[in-house]
Amino acid sequence: MAENTYSMQELQANTGVRVRTLRHWIRKKLLAKPSGKGRGARYNERHLQRAKVIGFMRSQRKSLREIRSALDRVSDEELPALLPKPRIALTPEGIPVAPRPPVYPAVSWEHVVLAEGLVLMVDASKGQLLRRVADEIYRHYGPQLTG
Fold first, then answer.
1. Helix, strand or coil for residue 87?
2. CB 135 within 8 A of CB 122
3. Would the pLDDT of 1 be above 50?
4. Calpha distance 34→8 (Å, rounded)
5. Of 56, 57, 139, 142, which one is least surrounded by beta carbons within 10 A?
6. Which residues contact 32 (CB under 8 A, 6 or more apart)?
7. pLDDT of residue 31 exceeding 80
């Protein structure tokens, strides 16, 4: 199966690290050179993971020397362990866990458009009387406001 590859702009978008900074890290040999040159340069998952780790470590005020030392001690498979844990819970398959249902009372509203920019909101759970009142308001004022 083919590995995902990224352009420099895609690498920037996926890591949040500016292109100029990514190029600096390549010059400092924190990131490997891409395959290809110029506009055809492609970056792989290893580049992506390392750039994420370096970016995170820089946000923690680590120097490039400290980062190089830390990266030299881990394999590519261990790189994700250097990143903070995601804040959202994931299933073992990597799918986000559905959020808990809200604890506040939810209300379903019907919107009756009387005119452009004028909406009557009716709580549908309060029974037929309110719906009849809304219907009367609509029949009485709706034609006057739209006509």
1. coil
2. no
3. no
4. 9
5. 139
6. 26, 46, 47, 50
7. yes
Contact 145, 123 (CB under 8 A): no
State how far the Cα of 25 lies from the Cα of 47, in Å rounded to an integer. Answer: 11
Angle value at C-alpha 76, between 75 and 81, nearest 5 degrees = 85
Find out whether 111 and 103 touch, Cβ atoms under 8 Å.
Answer: no
pTM attached to this predicted model: 0.57
pLDDT digits (tens, 9 = 90+) for 37-70: 888 899 999 999 999 999 999 999 999 999 999 9
First to last CA, the chain: 63
Q: How many CB atoms lie within 10 A of CB 31?
A: 22
Q: What is the mean pLDDT of the chain?
A: 87
Domain map (residue ranges) of the chain: 8-82, 109-146
Please say whether the structural domain 8-82 has been given the CATH code 1.10.1660.10. yes
Name every residue whose Cβ is closer than 8 Å to that of residue 43 and which is 6 or more positions away in sequence. Answer: 5, 6, 7, 8, 10, 11, 34
